Amino acid sequence: MINFQLFPRSKGISKEIQAIVDCFELEVERIKSPENNLSSNEVLDIIRPHLEKIDFKVETGKTANKKINVPVLFGYNNRIDKAFNADAISHDGKIVIEVEAGRATENNQFLKDIFQACMMCEVEYLVIVVRNEYRKHQDFQIVHTFLETLYISNRLHLPLRGIALIGY
Q1: Strand partners, 42
Q2: CA triplet 61, 62, 65: central angle to 5 degrees?
Q3: How does strand 80-86 pair with strand 56-58?
Q4: CA nearest 85: which of 51, 49, 109?
Q5: Is the pTM of this model over 0.90?
Q6: Is the dihedral of CA 31, 7, 62, 49 positive or negative?
Q7: The Cα angle at residue 134 between residues 130 and 135, in degrees rounded to 5
């Protein structure tokens, strides 16, 4: 089962975010947890053709020329001084997708994903994709509770228009 939630919850899900969710729903039987124990790269490989159909550029490997660099800082002559990698990015550069597996909550990778998306130039939405369950931990629920607390407390204001959480 695919679970999803957009934060802040006061906004409805956009057609662009729904299209991303639909990509995961198309492959739910192949990727769902805990039945399937896939790495994040394996999940991305399965979802890649669907994301590409909706005009996303998707990482194809771990070598430098296969990664997606999103600018963070610019230097002299508009050269990129700092960039962060993304698993996928929309054609207009406004939506970044990060697919996680085992490290999502155990190593707090989702927090790094949030930080990096906040630093990326022109990014408006982050889509964090995590397992529903990993080693008997409810990863989707753990990240959901964190994001719910972040947005309800209103103590930290992010430069993103929203964060979509998808559980597989």
Answers
A1: none
A2: 75
A3: unpaired
A4: 109
A5: yes
A6: positive
A7: 165
3-class secondary-structure state, position 35: coil
In angstroms, the CA 142 to CA 119 distance is: 24
DSSP for 107-135, please give it.
Answer: T-HHHHHHHHHHHSTT--EEEEEE-S-BT
**Which residues are CB-contacts of 2 (< 8 A; sequence separation ≥ 6)?**
21, 24, 25, 28, 32, 166, 167, 168
Domain segments of the chain: what residues? 12-153
Q: Which two tokens stand for residue 15?
A: 């057609």
Rg (CA), the chain: 15
pLDDT digits (tens, 9 = 90+) for 57-71: 999 988 888 999 999
Structure tokens at 3: 């679970």
